[in-house]
Amino acid sequence: MNVVAGLACSTNASILTRHGASQRKDVSVSRRATLAYKPYTIDMPIDHFPNDPTYAPHTNATFKQRYFFDATYYKPGGPVYLYIGGETNAQNRFSNLQTGTIADNVYFAQHITLPGVNASIKAPDTKWILLYPEVLFGGIAASAPVKTVVGYPEWYNPIQKYAPQDCIASINGIIDKMDHLVSTNNTHAIQQLKSIFGLGELKDIRDFAMTIAFPIGGPMNYPMGTWQELNWNPSYSSDDFWNFCSNVTNMDAPESITEVDYALANYTGGEPWTNLGNYANYIKTALIPICDGAPIDSTACFGTQNQTYWAGTSNGAGRSYLYTTCLELGAYQAAPETGPSLISRVLQPDYTQQWCTWAFPPGEYNALPPVVNTTLWNQYGGFNFSAPRLAFIDGASDVWLDLCYHSNNATSPRVSSDLHPEYLITGAGHHWDSYGIKNISAEPLFIQQAHLWEIRTVKKWLKAGW
Fold first, then answer.
1. Containing domain of residue 174, as a range?
2. Are 158 and 143 in a shared domain?
3. Strand 390-395 vs strand 422-425: parallel, antiparallel, or unpaired?
4. Which of 101, 238, 257, 464 allows an S-S link to 229, with CB 3.0 to 4.6 Å?
5. What is the pTM of this model?
6. How many domains does the chain have?
7. pLDDT tens digits, one per residue of 204-217
8. What's the CA gap between 293 and 289, in Å, rounded?
9. Are 159 and 294 in a shared domain?
């Protein structure tokens, strides 16, 4: 039995992790109705590659892989649709394009027996798509990163381009002025700036820079909804970003807030820091309270420089995700080398890389490379990644677009065909096609048409080659 797979792939940012005990409510989970399907498990091998030193130490152990299924429309001999969700509450590992996770999916297709289905649905013991082309008959890759890099300043490009421009201009201007203070080593003024935001206790300038970037998208950690958490479906969206920009550009703020725009003007030739007061007020009223009174510079709040914290061996989702990022995914959010920036230029890849060094020092069986080994990810072709019956669908406003098939950095033309379909959804964000409602005719037309295209694509595959 062949299987058609849908890959709802995403990268490090959407896991919404943060340091310490205070956790942001995940809008994609908290607003979801109770599960409609009963969970089941299959015994999944931990180690699919016993002869590959990359995955040492080796083991014969298994873990309980959770899955859900619906046999309502199944007919013996018909296709089985495997939906591989990205970073959801049923997720077994930490990234859908990691080699070990691909092997999990193949093992599942080859060995699964579904309760109540009196037919074998096990895939042939051969291969899938690029690696195993006969196990899974086809696939739809939604916002799937096909190429990675170490530093990824492009994450902020859609925000620069599509967000409210008065808000963006204000943030760019404030960051430019902040970086001027940094480049001139004006420590007194920098401390004043930290205090204006209520973050005077943060010792490392990079921790301060990341913290004030949280409403936009701070490197690796998002305690608030960002541009990425916007969604066409209100049940899965967050208004945090819109609220942030509305507050930054508030023209009716009291004088006690607007006068802050002039607090540091003596360091910038008398030029005010437009909307600094609004920006700082938002951080103090909407962000700092999530620390629930914890010391600002602690890992329970916004500090990241406690090496002991990173060295803790509790195996939470955030630690697992960090390992994948440090090993092969990378794409560390960083400020661009030139041009306007929404985050301070003190935020470079080495800021995130230090967490890798502290969290995963060399051990007896395993050691991370000193910098991300992007070859592990890019060896399959990068932007030229291609396989028969593998459809790529991306969002034009996705912060991760420039790692995906439709990246602005891809040089080869994107031409769709029935065997190699592709679709770029205008105005869409991160895997927006992965969200739907039962009444497809009630969806916004740009999403509805993407879903209808996916349905037609799979129908063509089945008609031509099933």
1. 153-359
2. no
3. parallel
4. 238
5. 0.84
6. 2
7. 999 999 999 999 99
8. 7
9. yes
Q: What are the Cα distances from residue 313, in Å, to 17, 130, 342, 415?
A: 17, 35, 34, 47
- d(C-alpha 450, C-alpha 393), whole Å: 8
CB 78 within 8 A of CB 461: no
d(CA 356, CA 330): 10
DSSP 154: G
What is the amino acid identity at position 132? Y
369 within some domain = no
Q: Chain-centre distance of CA 304, in angstroms?
A: 20
pLDDT tens digits for 262-295?
Answer: 999 999 999 999 999 999 999 999 999 999 999 9
Q: State which H helix or E strand residue 359 sits in.
A: helix 349-359
Q: Which amino acid is residue 160, in one-letter code?
A: Q
| Res 13: pLDDT | 30
The partner residues of 138 in beta bridges, in order of sequence, read: 4
> Quick one: 327 and 248 in the same domain?
yes
**Residue 66 · residue 39 · CB < 8 Å:** yes
Long-range CB pairs of 288-296, under 8 A, 24+ apart, other chains included: 288/198, 288/199, 290/22, 290/24, 290/223, 291/20, 291/22, 292/21, 292/22, 294/20, 294/21, 294/22, 295/201, 296/198, 296/199, 296/200, 296/201, 296/202
Do residue 168 and residue 299 come from a single domain?
yes
Comparing CA positions, the residue from 439, 36, 17 lying closest to residue 233 is 439
Residues 349 and 389 in one domain: no
The answer to whether 160 and 171 have CB atoms below 8 angstroms apart is no
Which residue type is seen at 309?
Y
CA dist 337 and 334 (Å) reads: 9
What interhelical angle do 165-183 and 240-248 show, nearest 10?
70
Do 334 and 225 lie in one domain? The reply is: yes
pLDDT of residue 57: 84
Alpha-carbon gap, residue 415 to 369, rounded angstroms:
37
Question: In terms of domains, do 127 and 189 share one?
Answer: no
- Residue 286, classed as helix, strand or coil, is helix
CA distances from 346 to 55, 194, 264, 334 (A): 34, 15, 20, 9
- How far apart (Å, rounded) are the C-alpha atoms in residues 450 and 461? 17
DSSP code string of 436-462:
--S-GGGS-HHHHHHHHHHHHHHHHHH
**319 within domain boundaries:** yes
Q: Where are the alpha helices (DSSP H) in 214-252?
A: 240-248
Answer yes or no: do 99 and 173 share one domain: no
Q: What is the DSSP string of 331-379?
A: -B----SSS--SS-TT--HHHHHHHHHHHS---SS----SS--THHHHT
H-helix or E-strand spanning residue 4: strand 3-8
Domain end point (choices 314, 330, 359): 359
